[in-house]
Amino acid sequence: MEIQLINIGFGNIVSANRVIAIVSPESAPIKRIINEARENGHLVDATYGRRTRAVIITDSSHVILSAIQPETVAHRFVISKDSQNGNS
Protein backbone atom coordinates (compact mmCIF):
# COMPACT_ATOMS: atom_id res chain seq x y z
CA MET A 1 0.00 0.00 0.00
CA GLU A 2 1.46 3.32 -1.11
CA ILE A 3 1.26 6.29 1.25
CA GLN A 4 -0.61 9.22 -0.25
CA LEU A 5 -0.17 12.62 1.39
CA ILE A 6 -2.53 15.58 1.04
CA ASN A 7 -1.72 19.22 1.83
CA ILE A 8 -4.39 20.67 4.16
CA GLY A 9 -2.98 24.19 4.20
CA PHE A 10 0.02 26.10 5.55
CA GLY A 11 2.36 23.23 4.73
CA ASN A 12 0.45 20.73 6.87
CA ILE A 13 0.05 17.29 5.36
CA VAL A 14 -2.16 14.32 6.28
CA SER A 15 -2.19 10.73 5.10
CA ALA A 16 -5.04 10.38 2.63
CA ASN A 17 -5.33 6.68 3.41
CA ARG A 18 -6.41 7.46 6.98
CA VAL A 19 -9.10 10.06 6.21
CA ILE A 20 -12.72 9.00 6.69
CA ALA A 21 -14.53 12.31 6.19
CA ILE A 22 -14.01 15.98 5.36
CA VAL A 23 -16.88 18.08 6.69
CA SER A 24 -17.88 21.66 7.44
CA PRO A 25 -17.63 22.71 11.11
CA GLU A 26 -20.99 24.51 11.17
CA SER A 27 -23.37 21.84 12.51
CA ALA A 28 -23.92 21.05 16.19
CA PRO A 29 -22.92 17.35 15.86
CA ILE A 30 -19.57 18.32 14.29
CA LYS A 31 -18.99 20.89 17.03
CA ARG A 32 -19.64 18.10 19.55
CA ILE A 33 -17.13 15.84 17.78
CA ILE A 34 -14.53 18.64 17.93
CA ASN A 35 -15.11 19.20 21.66
CA GLU A 36 -14.90 15.48 22.43
CA ALA A 37 -11.66 15.18 20.45
CA ARG A 38 -10.24 18.18 22.35
CA GLU A 39 -11.15 16.57 25.70
CA ASN A 40 -9.64 13.21 24.67
CA GLY A 41 -6.44 14.73 23.27
CA HIS A 42 -7.26 13.68 19.70
CA LEU A 43 -7.62 17.17 18.22
CA VAL A 44 -5.03 18.55 15.79
CA ASP A 45 -5.48 22.26 15.09
CA ALA A 46 -3.81 23.08 11.76
CA THR A 47 -5.53 26.45 11.30
CA TYR A 48 -2.68 28.67 12.54
CA GLY A 49 -5.22 30.80 14.39
CA ARG A 50 -7.48 31.30 11.40
CA ARG A 51 -11.14 30.36 11.14
CA THR A 52 -11.85 26.62 10.90
CA ARG A 53 -13.39 25.85 7.52
CA ALA A 54 -12.89 22.08 7.26
CA VAL A 55 -12.90 19.28 9.81
CA ILE A 56 -11.04 16.13 8.80
CA ILE A 57 -11.94 12.94 10.65
CA THR A 58 -9.49 10.02 10.55
CA ASP A 59 -9.83 6.30 11.14
CA SER A 60 -7.80 6.65 14.36
CA SER A 61 -10.48 8.97 15.88
CA HIS A 62 -8.26 12.02 15.42
CA VAL A 63 -9.97 15.22 14.35
CA ILE A 64 -7.95 17.71 12.29
CA LEU A 65 -9.02 21.33 11.86
CA SER A 66 -8.06 23.09 8.63
CA ALA A 67 -8.46 26.71 7.50
CA ILE A 68 -9.18 25.77 3.88
CA GLN A 69 -12.59 24.87 2.45
CA PRO A 70 -13.72 21.20 2.48
CA GLU A 71 -14.17 21.37 -1.30
CA THR A 72 -10.54 22.43 -1.73
CA VAL A 73 -9.28 19.56 0.40
CA ALA A 74 -11.50 17.10 -1.49
CA HIS A 75 -10.26 18.49 -4.82
CA ARG A 76 -6.68 17.83 -3.73
CA PHE A 77 -7.62 14.20 -3.04
CA VAL A 78 -9.02 13.86 -6.56
CA ILE A 79 -5.97 15.47 -8.19
CA SER A 80 -3.62 13.30 -6.14
CA LYS A 81 -5.48 10.09 -7.05
CA ASP A 82 -5.55 11.06 -10.75
CA SER A 83 -1.82 11.74 -10.84
CA GLN A 84 -1.17 8.49 -8.98
CA ASN A 85 -3.10 6.57 -11.65
CA GLY A 86 -1.18 8.27 -14.45
CA ASN A 87 -3.99 10.59 -15.47
CA SER A 88 -2.15 13.84 -14.74
Which properties best describe this structure?
88 residues; alpha+beta; 4-stranded mixed beta sheet; 31% strand; globular
Descriptive notes:
The strands form two sheets. The protein has a four-stranded mixed β-sheet. Strands 1-2 form a two-stranded antiparallel ribbon. A hairpin with a 4-residue loop joins β5 and β6. The relative contact order is 0.23. It is 32% helix and 31% strand. The chain is α+β, with helices and mostly antiparallel strands and 88 residues long. It is globular. It is built from two helices and six strands; from the N terminus they run βββαβββα.
Q: What is the helix tally? A: 2
Spans of at least 5 consecutive residues whose pLDDT stays below 50 are none
Order of helices and strands: EEEHEEEH
Mean pLDDT: 92
In which range does the helix fraction lie?
25-40%
Beta-strand fraction estimate? 25-35%
Strand count, sense and closure of the main sheet?
4 strands, mixed
Q: Which structural class do you get from the secondary structure elements?
A: alpha+beta
Strand order of the largest sheet: 3-5-6-4
Morphology call: globular
Instruction: Please report the distance between the alpha carbons of the first and last residues.
Output: 20 Å
**How big is the Rg?**
13 Å
- The count of strands amounts to 6
